[in-house]
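Researcher: Here's the sequence for the chain we discussed earlier.
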Amino acid sequence: MKLIECPRDAMQGIINFIPTELKIKYINQLLKVGFDTIDFGSFVSHRLVPQLKDTSEVLSSLNLSQTKSKLLSIVANVKGASEACLHNEIDYVGFPLSVSEEFQKRNTNKSIADALISVEKIQNLCINNNKEMVVYLSMAFGNPYGENYHPDMIASLIQKLSNLNINTVALSDTIGVSNNINISQLFAILTNDFTDIEFGAHFHSKKNEWREKIESAYINGCRRFDAALNGFGGCPMAKDDLVGNIATENLATHFKDEIEINTEEFAKSLQLASKVFKLSN
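Model: Thanks. This is the structure I predict for it:
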């Protein structure tokens, strides 16, 4: 079981700039908890996502000497991936690939075809720089823009990723349209057909719907879950009402027998999260 904590996702849509020193303090606290991975920052356009313009500065001040957590950084293009690959501290480079042409253009200013070309280039960069690529497959459970959607479209994209030896794919519900039926169907098909890929779940969800989503994914083979403390976050590029992440504290309780976290440091992280996001509002 892998629990991925996502402060980057929680922060990216916030307009008021969170002081760099506070980000550093917060992520250093998260590193003490025992999460498998911390999605800590992003090498993207400072104009489009000004909240994350200090990612390099944050990274340089993280204390990685006594943590088992790995670091993941999101990029939107080859340039961002090249910058991420300069940092030995980063283990994973994440890229958002969408089933939706509309959302792919909103998120990375590319068509899906062009994004796949970027995926191949970024994968080569990762291989050459001892990183692992994580593809976030957004709009994996439905399309809100009136475009065609079918699970076969997902399988087709996954096949292309498999051909590039992408080993980790997070199925992402960017605006909260997934349910127990489409989650079960998609994970059951993909985990059976692509046994060489680790499939994760990155759900945005209303607070009363998280359990059925998590259980549907788990029953059908998912063992990698993204979350954010207090359920903060949402995708600003969707240009819709932000639907928050699933709260990490819910997953920590739900999977208490399958994950090992430092409960004292976890409690401290929850307290600090409330301060971080209160100050940013």
